[in-house]
Amino acid sequence: MQLRYAFRLYPDAGQQVALARAFGCARVVFNDCVRAREDARRAGRPFPTAGELSTRLITQAKKTASRSWLGEVSAVVLQQSLRDAESAYKNFFTSLKGARKGPKLGAPRFKSRKDARQSIRFTANARWNITPGGRLNLPKIGAVKVKWSRPLPATPTSVTVIKDSAGRCFASFVIDTDPAADASRMPATYQSTGIDLGLTHFAVLSTGEKIDSPRFLRRAEKKLKKAQQDLSRKQKGSRNREKARLKVARAHAKVTDARKEFHHQLSTRLLSENQGIAVESLSVTGLARSRLARSVHDAGWTAFVNMLEYKAGRYGRTLIKIGRYEPTSQVCSTCGVKDGPKPLNIREWTCTACGTLHDRDHNAALNVKQAAGLAVTACGAPVRPGAIPAQHEETGSHGFPTANCAA
Questions:
Q1: What is the rounded distance in angstroms from the CA atom of residue 216 to the CA atom of residue 219?
Q2: Partner of 317 for a Cys bridge, out of 90, 208, 297, 312, CB 3.0 to 4.6 A?
Q3: How far is CA 305 from CA 69, 266, 390, in A?
Q4: Which uninterrupted H or E stretch holds 318?
């Protein structure tokens, strides 16, 4: 399995200029590739191959007056930018044919220097290295200071330098993990649990444990509101407006980082305590259109379930998702009688058949576990046949690092 380990970078003034130059050159090459393909499509010609684009947009472009500054950055950065454009078109055509899962993808668009995220990638061919003093030495950029929050478990195959909207720089390393070593990190357990995700409590387990929702966005709303008001009062194009924009971006980044850290710690704890985990597949997109949209986004259920999924595959655990139409809140977990739908304000109810008093969320968590068939035998094997550890796809170069917090 491949994972990403992200570490904060602290470039000096000269390195910040070199990074900005590299970001700009990679963006120009990407846009030139999109423009060349669009021109060929409009003219009815076949798309130029990757080799033709590399020769025309990089090798020959460096010899022209209008693109001579492309030679000031590493050639690997420019080549990887072309690969990103090729991958974007490949994903677009795959989605267009219906062979790609998930929502439909649009055609690649031009990148802007005002985009919230800028990135460049260095492969092994770029000959980057980590110095004995712990700095990241990048070609034509220099040795950048790195905040090592933990050691790298293996030799990285590539590094992506990312600059976010808050002006922070990160080095994201791709690591090939050892499945046997990862599985040995987790203690042996035969326990299993069902999880009911909610808003009043972030998660209620079938054991009866209730995990409160931190509500990071709600707690930061006052500060975010003031920062946004200050931004709206600044004149467009002024330096003060840019300072106010960074202040807003940093406030949002703080909320995002806190939520991500909470998800990482909780998902790791649940997987260390349980061999099997069952969770309900929620329609987050549909719930985000309701009056609870802000609270739904603040909870971040999708990100949490995705963490459970890739960590289950990494550590040899079992994750089972049950259908969203399973009536977990309507069925009595004791006798199995379906008692009908109930409004959200009813948090406790008594079964009309057996007379058992149920906590709404705890009962739903028990039903999630039963629907997944996660009762375990004495030897620890799940009763449900065909359950296999969830797999995690290889991390791409465009997504934000998936393992930038404690995993």
A1: 5
A2: 312
A3: 45, 11, 11
A4: strand 318-322
Question: Minimal CA–CA distance to 304: which of 252, 253, 344, 269?
Answer: 269
pTM of the complete model: 0.84
The neighbour count for residue 289, using CB atoms within 10 Å, is 10
Catalytic one of 84, 182, 339, 361 = 361
Catalytic residue among 32, 84, 182, 280: 280
Rounded to whole angstroms, the Cα distance separating 67 from 91 reads: 29
Q: Name the active-site residue from 196, 298, 309, 339.
A: 196
Amino acid at 101: K
Q: Burial of 87 by CB count in 10 Å (0-12 exposed, 13-18 middle, 19+ buried)?
A: middle
375 pLDDT higher than 90: no
Given a contact cutoff of 8 angstroms between Cβ atoms, the answer to whether 314 and 306 are in contact is no
Between the alpha carbon of residue 206 and those of residues 138, 169, 255, 273, the distances in Å are 50, 41, 29, 13
Q: In whole angstroms, what is the distance from residue 36 CA to residue 250 CA?
A: 37
Neighbours of 28 (CB within 10 A): 19
120, containing H or E segment: strand 118-123
Q: With 60 as the cut, is the pLDDT of residue 178 above it?
A: yes
Say if residue 374's pLDDT is above 80.
Answer: no
CA 310 to chain CA mean position, Å? 11
pLDDT tens-digit series, residues 298-334 = 999 999 999 999 999 999 999 999 988 888 888 888 8
Instruction: For tokens 């709303």, name the residue.
Output: 221
| 196 carries an active-site annotation | yes
Local confidence band at 85 (pLDDT 50, 70, 90 cut-offs): very high
Which tokens in the block code for residue 381? Answer: 């094997």
Mean pLDDT (the chain) is 88
38 noted as active-site residue: no
Spatial CA neighbour of 375 closest among 387, 390, 361, 364 = 387
Tokens in use for 43? Answer: 């003219």
Confirm whether 257 is a catalytic residue: no
Is residue 194 within 8 A of residue 274, CB to CB? The reply is: no
Q: Which amino acid is at 95?
A: S
